[in-house]
Predict the 3D structure of the following.
Amino acid sequence: MPQAAKLTPDELLRQVQAEEHYARTGRLKVFLGYASGVGKTFRMLDEGRRRKERGQDVVLGAVQPRNSPDLDYLLKQIPVIPLLEIDGVPVMDVEAILRRKPLVCLVDGLAYDNPPGSRNPHRWQDVEQLLAEGVSVITTINVQFVEELREQVEAIRGKSVKVSVPEAFLHRADEIVVVDTPTDFCVARTADSYATTERDEQSRKLSQLREIALLLAADVVDEQLEGFLPTDGVAPAWGTQERILVCLTPKANAQRMIERAKVICDRFHGELFVIYVGQSDLTADGQAALERNLALARAAEAEVKLMTGKDAVATIIEYANQQRITQIFIGHSLNESIWGRFTRTTVDRLIRAAEGIDVKLFPH
Amino acid sequence: MSNSSPTKGRLKVFLGYAAGVGKTYQMLEEARELKRSAADVVVGYFEPHARPDTIALMEGLESIPCRAVEYRGTRFEEMDTDAIIARHPEVAVVDEFPHTNVPGSPRAKRWEDVVYILDHGIHVLTTMNVQHLESLNDQIYNMTGVRVRETVPDWVVQQAAEVVMIDLTPPALLNRLDRGVVYQGDKITKAKENFFKESTLVALRELALRETAFEVEARQPGRENTAGRVLVYITGDAASVPLIRRGKRVADYMKTECLAVVVSPAANVSHMVPEQRDRLQKNLDFAHNLHLETHVLTGTDIAENLVAFAREHGVTQIYLARPKPSPLNFPFSKDLVEKVARLARDMEVTIVAERAARR
């Protein structure tokens, strides 16, 4: 059974700093949707109402104009900080909110560009400021407004959006909630006039967006999970996500292994890691091959780790446990009747040491 | 069968990651919504869990009374599947999809009842948690230390027209638990010792999000199958069970088939001692229930037989169980793994480790 990883002094320092920072700042909660009409704003306002009923000081910092009786009812329950107008464009009044200093501020529509002359160019920066001042924020966003996903989403929707929020900002959320309504619901709302094929097409697009939203939320949740691992004393939980570790050795068919790992990572939405445990007696050719392989790994967007260690197997297993690896890829040369001593002992020992991790063998 | 419609009903699954996230609540909300839009909806089975908000949603919905079943002197209430089919609504609401029926019921599992109802042209809304999915059983054990006994085969969920994730953050769920909304009395403390640790809930939630994303993706057209098939080598050993789950899951994600293969020295398995034969049969049944194609090969050289069969059947990935640690500590060169790896140089050989509970 693997031990919970011991923290290095650096990690410990980072943890302490993170805890101090956490105590001072507000909490960020995000309702993530994949289309308008799935009910993000309703969920946000409803949570605001419930918190207010429990005695928390809740204000509404920004809301998008809507006409829905359900929302109107909720909007009346929560005090509003009026929007400013700069050159006729509405902007969230960060100063007024900070003067009021509520416990929780609701911000509808996180993806929003403020007009020139505003305190911050983007609304997510306004929110950052509120959080830094200790105000907790509950906000809403649709997946098409996440900067890093923009290209992918535009390809699906065939429309471009002007405003965006960096994905890293969502990753700092303390809580992220997917508002997952079946696609039929949205289609029924918007598509009465569509012909059937168009309706199918619409439904297919929404499914793709829905998948992207679910995976983004899973990634954010995965980061929260990592936060638990050291403090809980819990050894890494296996298999929430597929994580593949490719072991480079001088003779291994690195290209094949990395290609295969990439395919599996794509299919499982997993993560790819590549490790090389250094050997001092590498020939010039060996060194050149290694450089090529490392370049391949980086091109495949793998997390690349170069390590040294007398015991390659122990080094690989230690790293694998730290990174919650679920599959190890390693080359073997089992073609000769008597195989090389290196392969036999390494592969054999690796299989035996890989507690709870699959080992995939690649001939070379 | 005059009253059964020729087309099958559609299944919708409300997927959660723990009790109390709001699956039943959402399902009943949808049932009410359907009823408002003039659909003929009945509740076939409902688990109240003493949650007043949820119970309130039952008001105005027609429900089919449960069937009382006597088993070993105790009275149990089971869903009355025949009565639902006789009533033949458009939509039936069936809570607790993974439930196991009392022995002697017409079908062993509630999901089998649901499949039966769907076959009669009735749409079904149902609820389940991600930890009840068969292929995740070992992962769940590893994450939580709990071996979930009531499982639903993946193919059943894959046949659902829709899978929706009912999401609630773990802090909010724990808050509900503390307020006594989810369970009452002793059950609260007990729950906190099992699934209801925040770190466990976070991990389960991530799993549910990824599973839902997979289910959404699997329903999108246009991903053709380019992968070769997956083969798992099974024996009467207990290690074959996680191997079957793993192989099937990989095959599902790769949109390909998984074959479960046994190699026996004789055409029938009569040379085996009955106990051994039973265990092998159990593993074959298990594979069969998960919709793996099973094959029994005759031969004495396991590695050669496996690899030849794999090559003939378009297999590109072979999954083997990890060799048991031997007291003599022979290198694995002496065993099956080595020989298969040597023969199957045109395929990938994967050694699947058993997943022990890690806490």
The two ends of chain B are 52 Å apart (CA to CA). The first strand of chain B starts at residue 11 and ends at 16. Chain B touches chain A through 54 residues (CB under 8 Å).
